[in-house]
Amino acid sequence: MSKLLTERLALLSQPEHLHVLGEGLRGIERETLRVRQDDGALSLRPHPVALGATLTHPEITTDYAEALLEFITPALPDISAALERLDQVHRFVHANLGEEMLWSQSMPGELPSEEAIPIAWYGTSHIGMIKHVYRRGLALRYGKTMQCIAGIHYNFSLSPEVWKIISKAEGRRGDAQYLQSESYVALIRNFHRFSWLLMYLFGASPAIPRSFLRGAPHTLETLSDDTLYLPYATSLRMSDLGYQNNAQDGLVPPYNTLLEYMRSLSKAVRKPYPPYEAIGTQKNGEWVQINTNVLQIENEFYATIRPKQVIRSGERAVEALCARGVQYIEVRCMDVNPFDPLGISLETARFLDVFLTYCALQDSPLTSEAEGSINQANFSATVREGRRPGLQLQRGDAQVSLQAWGLDLIAAMEPVAALLDQQHGGSAHRDSLAVQKARLDNPDLTPSAQVLKAMTAHGNSYLRFGLAQSQQLAQQFRDRPLSAEQTQSFTAAAHKSLQEQSTIEQQQSGDFDSFIQDYRSRTSEQLCCDE
């Protein structure tokens, strides 16, 4: 354990400081496809009205495709409370899906033709239309099939008091907002160094339906007539088969400050890209993408982790970061675990809290493009062959086995888990480490290995396994209906969101062309992060 980590843990374990570890916030965004219950095929129906308005509902919305639901929990001090709320959302949704259900995998099942996949719709207001146009642009740039991939996003923050306590003890200079932001950037640097471990431990997409590739060339192996895979893969979702974009290569190089990150994103939103210029922004008088640049908006940048600030109505992501700094980080590389009804378990969440706290408190040397290439190579090797016996990763100037490095990291995180248990009570964080240590000792215990094992009972068919697992989980939720009071609360929230969307549509002024031009103009030199 490093000297700095030892000192910070000792500082935060002092009686007058220990409570602040329980004052950070956790939240989950869970994506999941609506599919037909009888065959698992993608739903082509609009978003159910009973679930409310996707534009204004705080907990139930859609991501890229109309059928790709996204459930957003409140940010709460204990992740167990967020998961309890997520469970209630699932139960309410299943009670209002009729003959549909939620798909239990990250990678989609049976999809219709590209043209037939509906893009998410948010109504006729200007803000709703710009969300829809953004998704039209995504469809043109990457295809609609990619918009049907689902994941788990984990939102994590430490109490602002943690950064103040550490900064004061270490004599760090700067205002509170600057120190907090740069501390989160340091966390992100460490995350990139160690995130391959999350792919090994939690990757759950080692196989895909053959139809997903729509005839494109690939290097996968055949598992059955309808299924492709790699024998040692952990997460094909996070490989080059998933949501990737060659136009973004080198877009945001490894960064050491928030300012560097914001400048890179701001430039990308303004940098023209000839293939997108050839498409244009309008076709037959309709907007088909927000602009013809490398990125339409900042969120189009695909990252395994993002620095985040809560965005106010109509505000852009970089504007929020410029104005108020980093408030929390969003981990975006987690697969949906098909064996967990919610896609993620409490045990996994406890480990993420340990892992991210470790990344926050551990030494975080400045990075470089050379190190960034090594980090990416380690990550890519793990997603494609993480369970391969003897797999070697690059640690500094040396080669080391994935298992050995992983066990070293688990050992280094043990004092962090002990401190979190001291604050929280019990042994949940240390117990989560023990589970992950067992997975490093035995790759057959990983979710990716368990998925392949479970598929054998379904003729090694990804589609048949996904259908059976989704049906089983859907029945579990329907067997546990909400109370009348809970149902009434969710129904009221849905009605309120519909009313709010209607009000926005009725009260807006001006035309959409002017609205979108104003939105695009806010990526110019007026942003504080521009050079």
TrEMBL record:
<dbReference type="GO" id="GO:0005524">
    <property type="term" value="F:ATP binding"/>
</dbReference>
<keyword id="KW-0067">ATP-binding</keyword>
<feature type="domain" description="Glutamate--cysteine ligase">
    <location>
        <begin position="10"/>
        <end position="380"/>
    </location>
</feature>
<dbReference type="GO" id="GO:0005829">
    <property type="term" value="C:cytosol"/>
</dbReference>
<dbReference type="GO" id="GO:0046872">
    <property type="term" value="F:metal ion binding"/>
</dbReference>
<comment type="similarity">
    <text>Belongs to the glutamate--cysteine ligase type 1 family. Type 1 subfamily.</text>
</comment>
<protein>
    <recommendedName>
        <fullName>Glutamate--cysteine ligase</fullName>
        <ecNumber>6.3.2.2</ecNumber>
    </recommendedName>
</protein>
<dbReference type="GO" id="GO:0004357">
    <property type="term" value="F:glutamate-cysteine ligase activity"/>
</dbReference>
<keyword id="KW-0436">Ligase</keyword>
<keyword id="KW-0317">Glutathione biosynthesis</keyword>
<dbReference type="InterPro" id="IPR006334">
    <property type="entry name" value="Glut_cys_ligase"/>
</dbReference>
<dbReference type="GO" id="GO:0006750">
    <property type="term" value="P:glutathione biosynthetic process"/>
</dbReference>
<keyword id="KW-0547">Nucleotide-binding</keyword>
<dbReference type="Pfam" id="PF04262">
    <property type="entry name" value="Glu_cys_ligase"/>
</dbReference>
<dbReference type="InterPro" id="IPR007370">
    <property type="entry name" value="Glu_cys_ligase"/>
</dbReference>
<comment type="pathway">
    <text>Sulfur metabolism; glutathione biosynthesis; glutathione from L-cysteine and L-glutamate: step 1/2.</text>
</comment>
<dbReference type="InterPro" id="IPR014746">
    <property type="entry name" value="Gln_synth/guanido_kin_cat_dom"/>
</dbReference>
